TrEMBL record, chains A, B, C, D:
Any single Pfam family the record assigns to this protein: TetR_N
Protein name: TetR family transcriptional regulator
Domain HTH tetR-type: 11-71
Organism in which the protein naturally occurs: Agromyces ramosus
Biased composition (Basic and acidic residues): 213-227
Length: 227, 227, 227, 227
DNA sequence: AATGAATGAGTGTTCATTCAT
DNA sequence: TATGAATGAACACTCATTCAT
């Protein structure tokens, strides 16, 4: 039923719908977001929506796909120029957290995807993880990290990033009691504090078999302090 | 409006409703789960629901709370008897994965809670993390692990468990292509393969500054030290 | 199904239910008043209600009946001892307004009765009007008032009392703009200002053919009309 | 959410809904009138209602407003051409009773408004009363009536009209016992008998200080007016 | 290409009433 | 006499989707 736009005007309308949908999904989640809210924000008639998308799920999936591209691009751009795997990892995480802070939609939309469109979620995570796996494999070949299983490690890294991002970016102030910040749209602009990022990288560095590369205060580390 | 049951019959009805709700939420998620589906499955009239719960959100929150208790109990029971922090960690994760496999509701309900009842989600994660933090602090005092920041580490562990659990328990077969397993109710009985658990623990062991305790094949650790 | 109470305890319970119903109907109106609210306020179980009343409409009708008795008693007590019809009228109205101020339920319940139980409403008004008619007839025989049709006059008096009561007792401050006092339960304690009562009685005095008896400032009419 | 119709079709649909609502509210009152009954009678889908009205209360308020305009227009049209205040009053009342007979909804809807939408009720009465007040003030300046307080008199007139209208128009036959006419839809076509209108106007004429202008059989007025 | 109108199945929730104890 | 449990029909309202223009 829906079709690709054939005119410049159509292309523009489709774009407006996607942009509006990102805002609306981010603000309200999938279920509370109504097609009419999307078309309202896009400034088009309700029927116009179905010119470009078959269903509400359709535009949602496209949006998840799009966010996936953008976050991966942000991460690899962030990591570009890093001179070691861990440096790349750190830069990638930093980019990921920055992206999350700027687009809290990512978290919300993606996590909601689990129930709404499980395939979209799997694809999203899988693609990011694949990037990790490749990087880890290269680093292992170069002896840069230990011989940890890259698949398991990649999923673990994914989980760390997700949870730290949720905790420090989405929730914000560590001391905020639950309930202090109930408005989900209000909390999307925090940063991961530097020491948290440091500790997280030390954690990851150790995990990957190169504690000394992550900077350290680690007990059994031969040269560095304590000695 | 809702009240606690005052008779045995009422207690039983309330229990049936909670059990039904767990099933229905797990199968369909919060939004697709309708009160009438819950009451149907519980075998009671629709109005009966409101004798014991004020709103649909109410029973959802109670369920999240309940699941939180149960998973934490499962984890600490699993970890009981461990002789080291890492052993406890491993046993705790194993218990967590087992619980997840038996109650896929946990994942689905909890993750959806983010949009439906953010406080419930935060409380859930925070409580589990607090358990981690205590354990890590004790272990650090005993010199069992490195001096990693316990809060950051705890959230990282939480994320690892979540993601590994999602990947290997909920999704099941690593090679299953997305789309092969779209029915969310069909995939709740997998186990985390032993080697994945092993690798995960090596990852965590390294992260916590005691790679050698986690068992290893690590490059830079020729024949364990510590001897 | 319902029965008269056979024990002192039952009499008491029935009384509690009626008292609770008056409060609840007054506060919420017929439709918003639920049986459970009534039983809650009465401090009895929900089922107990149906021991004494067949339906919600039943207790409502009984309440209207009861209020009717009470307001008529208040009015005739107020009027007792008056030495002329107009004095009696004034005292009766004053009593009526006082009763209204103390029991705003009267107005609300009675007016709602029009749709809920039209018979109850008619009976209520008719009974009060019959009292007026009798009084007017007597007064006419005594030459105390003009020979106005007592039935029409009685209904007119009823209407005047109702409207003045609504305007000055229920609504309160004459200058309050609509909306300033939207809470219907908050405005039941006003009084009809003395000059309003005075003017009203002058109006009625003239209507009944005895302007001079009502006190007057009437234009050029030292002793009746114009001549 | 609701919007003004943008096409002729929409205008027509909205009109049908209002007309249906007037019938349904008049027949059943606010609470028994369900949106689905309204849409059924209008011959549109249930959802269509919410295209033009936000809530059931919304259309109710609009209806009260509309009825207020119409009754005031009917009254001033009825009074147009009267050569004295009392003549105008009589014509106005006659128009009011005629309108009531043709639109019994007025009474029912407006009286129920007291509980449903108190502001609407106050506005309704206040607007009519303001018309009375203006007329009375003019008449007083012209010496046409006594110097009665116009505000109090206006509310009194409002009450008289309401009550006489209820008694003779809505209830119909004076001798009908309560219960004979329980169907509220069946009684909307009566007229106020001429002698009742006559007596009512004599009552009012006396009240306003000009008994002789209202026609009379008054004791102290041996051979009619003015001569 | 665009749109406003229309729909009807579906939602969470309420409540007068019945009944077993 | 008293009650808490249970019910199911009913309600106001929402929304993804279709369609005529």
């Amino acid at each position: 039923m829906s079709a690709s736009p054939r005119t410049a005007r159509g292309v523009e309308t489709r774009r407006k719908l996607l942009a509006a949908a990102e805002r609306v999904f981010a603000d309200h989640g999938y279920h509370e977001a109504s097609v009419s809210r999307i078309t309202d924000r896009a400034g088009v008639g309700q029927g116009t929506f179905y010119l470009y998308f078959d269903t509400k799920l359709d535009i949602f999936n496209e949006l998840v796909e799009d966010l996936n591209h953008r976050v991966r691009q942000a991460m690899s751009e962030g990591a570009r120029g890093a001179t070691s795997r861990l440096e790349a990892e750190r830069a990638g995480f930093a980019a990921f957290f920055r992206f999350t802070a700027e687009h809290p939609a990512l978290y919300r939309v993606v996590r909601e995807a689990e129930l709404v469109s499980p395939d979209a979620l799997r694809l999203h995570y899988t693609r990011i993880v694949e990037g990790y796996i490749d990087g880890l494999r290269d680093a292992a070949e170069d002896g840069e990290i230990g011989d940890i299983d890259p698949t398991v490690a990649a999923w673990a890294l994914m989980g760390i990033g997700e949870m730290i991002g949720m905790r420090w970016v989405l929730w914000g102030d560590p001391d905020a009691a639950p309930g202090d910040d109930a408005d989900p749209t209000a909390s999307g602009t925090r940063e991961v504090p530097p020491h948290v990022l440091d500790e997280m990288m030390r954690f990851i560095g150790g995990a990957l078999g190169r504690p000394e590369l992550a900077g350290d205060r680690r007990d059994g580390a031969p040269e560095k302090e304590e000695s």
